[in-house]
Every structure is written in structure tokens, then in C-alpha cells.
């Protein structure tokens, strides 16, 4: 039996950060990993997807500037794009990250970990042997999520793609159907269309990116259509059938044929087989936590959960943030050090509730932080949405001919601070952190008026937003 101060289940970006912070706080830490150290993000999500998208964005930007446009004469080199993607996915080998774990002073235990009652984890190695780990202070569940695929007739035999295949495929399908209208669906439709696939996007609802400001999904839909994607709304897939190289989807409107079909229909927490029942929790459900990361359904304060698995914000940067905060909390509690649990204190992940930033790497990019107008209203705030056409900003018109984009600031009228900001347009991803700082710091609009954006940059939209607000 091995004893550590802390046992972390899952070495994705969240588990790695949590373990490192707890170790920096003085704890001995074992990290259990069943697949690749680095998690979904490194091999089947953020890194390979952005590596697929970046060449498309670079090419599209050049074609929007007269003079540069003429120099872009051919399509993307798909083989080169896939090879660059492979490198960003470290060729699906985790030696580099495993070395980092060792260099950070953490103990890596390979195998599938399961809770086995209070502060006990049983790890099943690939050869079937078992190793029991006990934790003197805490166990942190950082097992992430898996793709959620609907249970449709025929789907089990149709070799459908999930986000894993969509980010790691070795060849460009001639025809790709994508089911879903969320972030994975629109990013992967963008990437594979740019690589040459004929893409049909089947969306159950009435708009893309339904969790963001409505104009974001509308602008992305327009652009996908302009690029040749067949975007269909109000379509539900009821059946899937594969016959050799062709997969047929049955919908209410008829059938759609493709060579591959991606189901980008959300995520499910990776908790079905981690022994949650042995500690009184329900397998398959997210592990709900308070702002210090402690599981609310388990007495004794020894179980924590961070990252995708707790369902607070399914984003790498937010999981890493929780990892930093909760790792320090675990170390502080173990050492008897006082916590600071007031909002925005060092022992709480307050930003999860008010200021989650996200970039959707479509063309145009969508960059958003905090609350949408409707979310702010529903939360009881008296708010105003301040909108501005990004194409009217000098820096944007220099950036691209016929620049199309829009910005929205959601202002709390009682306190005159920002509750949320959304930018849609080429090159806006790098503007987002300015908005995140303003939302987190609750900078008054009166003071933001004095934050002068450099001319002529796209950031000048900040000035235009405040001019519009002041009238
Ligand atoms: C296609 C796609 C693109 C994305 N792009 C972005 C992006 O651009 N930016 C962004 O911020 N987010 C993005 N995300 C979301 C991001 O991937 C996740 O938020 C992030 O990976 C969560 O990190 P995590 O450490 O919580 O979980 P994961 O990355 O899922 O890691 C969990 C780890 O736990 C291991 N594990 C699970 N169960 C066990 C067990 N029982 N025993 C041992 N180990 C176990 C897994 O093998 C895995 O290594 C994307 C997601 C997808 C699907
Ligand atoms: N750039 C980024 O930051 C990035 C990129 C990709 C993913 N992610 C994160 O990963 C998470 C997962 O993304 P996702 O796109 O898989 O999930 P999502 O929840 O964003 O979107 C899933 C969509 O599928 C639809 N859907 C669900 N079941 C369906 C069905 N049976 N038929 C048709 N449609 C169905 C839902 O209505 C929803 O719109 C998200 O939280 C996202 O933020 C982030």
C-alpha cells in the first residue's frame, strides 16, 4: 500500500496544475492516468483542433487584403496541415508531459483509478494488476469528460466520428456530415471545409452557438454558408446506417449521405467507472463542488473535483485555474493555514461564476467573456447592451477589406461596470483578455473612458463602445 498526502485522478491540464500547486504547497502527490498524460486537450481537443484551424485562418486572412490576396493562389496543402497537426498532438505520445510530471516532483501512477471509500484509490494497471493508494489529506477527481453520443438506431455499427476522430483523422473525407451546433461542431465544420470536405451541418435548434450572444451564431452561420457548408437548422437525426464507405443519416426531412459523420453533441462527465458509489455519489454525474473545490455531496472535506468533471466551465484555461486555486486550498488545509474564501479571494474560483472567457476559432472568430445580455437580465441585473459594428473601426478596415464583425458590451446600469463582452470578427481573439480584465476588476465605465486604445487597431472598438454608451 502506498501513501501520499494527495492522490489526483486524471493527468489532464487540470490534474497536472492541481497536483503541481499542491506539491508547491508542501504535499506529496500521486497522479493517476489511464491514457496519455496531458489529457483530452493535448491530443484530441484544443491543440489538434487549433492546429487544424490555424492554417485555414491564415489563408482566409490573406485573401481578405488586396495585394496579399493575389499571392494566395492555391488551396491549403492538406498533407502539410495534417502533419503540423500531428506534431502539435505530439504524435499522440506523452513522454514529454510524463517527464514534466517527474521533474515537478510528482509521482505518476499509470492505470485506471477508482475510489474505494474514503481517501482510498485502487489503480488497475494495463496488465490487470492492482495498486492501492491512500491519501493522508485529499483525493482530487480530475477525470474530465467524454463525447456524448445519442443512442440512435444503427449508430453503434456506423463507425461515427466523435471529437477524437475529428481531431486526429489521417485523411480528408470527401463528404462530412456534422451533427450539432455547438463549439465543436462549428470549429470542425470550419476546419474540414477548409481542408476540402463537402460539409453538411445538421443543427437540431434554430441557431449556432446557442450559449453565446445570438449575433455570434448568426455571423458564423453566414460565413460557413459563404464557404460552401450546407447549414441546416431544425434537423433531428433519428437513425444512422453505414454501408461500406457511405453513411446514411435519416432525418425528419429525408436522408443525408456522407463518407463520415461527426457527432458533436456535447460531453458527459468521465465518472461512470471511478467508484463514486463507494463514497455516496452517483456514477455518471458531475462531481459538484463549492468554490474551494470540495465535493458538496461528501462529508469530511477530503474529496475535491476540478476541471470538466465538475461541470462548472468546460474549458482548459478554466480547469487549470481551478487546478491552481484548489491545489493551493488542499495544501493550505493540510497545513492548517487560513483560507481566503471571500469572493475573488485566493482560495476560491470566483471567476467560474462571473468571468469565463472563451474563444471559438471559427471564421469569424468569436471571443466572449462573462454574461450575455439575456443571462445578465435573467440574473436580475438592470442592463444595457451596447453594440458596435466592428467593420466601422479604422483598425478593422485596415486589417481586412470588407471587414465583418460586431461587438457588444453588457453594462450593469446600477453600478456602471461591465458584466460581459462579446467580439465577433477576424483577429478578435487577442482582444478578449482586455475585456476579461475589465470584467474581473469591475473597472467603472467612467475609468474605462480613459483607457485609450492605440490608433489604428481593432481595439479602438472600446472607444466606440463608450461613445455609443454615452450618446
Ligand atoms: C474538440 C475539442 C476542442 C476543444 N478546444 C478547446 C479550446 O480551444 N480551448 C479550451 O479552453 N478548451 C477546449 N476544449 C475543452 C477542453 O478540451 C477541456 O475543457 C479540457 O480538456 C478539460 O481538462 P481536464 O483536465 O478537466 O479533463 P481532460 O482533458 O479530459 O483530462 C482528464 C484526464 O483524466 C484521465 N482519466 C479519466 N478517467 C480516469 C481514471 N479513472 N483513472 C485515471 N485517469 C483517468 C483521462 O485519460 C484524461 O487524461 C475542447 C474540447 C474539445 C472536445
Ligand atoms: N474553442 C473552445 O474553447 C472550445 C472548442 C471546442 C469545445 N469546447 C468546449 O467543449 C465543450 C463541448 O463542446 P460541444 O460542442 O461538444 O458541446 P456543446 O454543449 O457546446 O454543444 C453541443 C450541441 O449539440 C446539441 N445536441 C445535443 N444532443 C443532440 C442530438 N441528439 N442531436 C442534435 N444535436 C444535439 C446541443 O443542443 C448543443 O447545441 C463545450 O463546453 C465547449 O465550450 C471549447
From TrEMBL:
InterPro entries cross-referenced by the UniProt entry: Class-I_Pyr_Nuc-Dis_Oxidored, FAD/NAD-bd_sf, FAD/NAD-binding_dom, FAD/NAD-linked_Rdtase_dimer_sf, Pyr_nuc-diS_OxRdtase, Pyr_nucl-diS_OxRdtase_dimer
Annotated GO MF terms: dihydrolipoyl dehydrogenase (NADH) activity; flavin adenine dinucleotide binding
Annotated GO biological process: 2-oxoglutarate metabolic process
Transmembrane portions of the chain: none
Binding site for FAD: 50, 113, 308
Chain sites annotated for binding NAD(+): 180-187, 266
Keyword Flavoprotein set for record: yes
Disulfide linkage: 41-46
Cofactor binding comment, as recorded: Binds 1 FAD per subunit.
Signal peptide start and end residues: none
Domain FAD/NAD(P)-binding: 4-322
Pfam families per the UniProt record, alphabetical: Pyr_redox_2 (PF07992), Pyr_redox_dim (PF02852)
Highest taxon of the lineage: Bacteria
Coiled coil (UniProt feature): none
Domain Pyridine nucleotide-disulphide oxidoreductase dimerisation residue range list: 356-462
Cofactor(s) listed: FAD
Keywords on record: FAD, Flavoprotein, NAD, Nucleotide-binding
PANTHER family in the record: DIHYDROLIPOYL DEHYDROGENASE, MITOCHONDRIAL, DISULFIDE OXIDOREDUCTASE
Stated family: Belongs to the class-I pyridine nucleotide-disulfide oxidoreductase family.
Protein name: Oxidoreductase
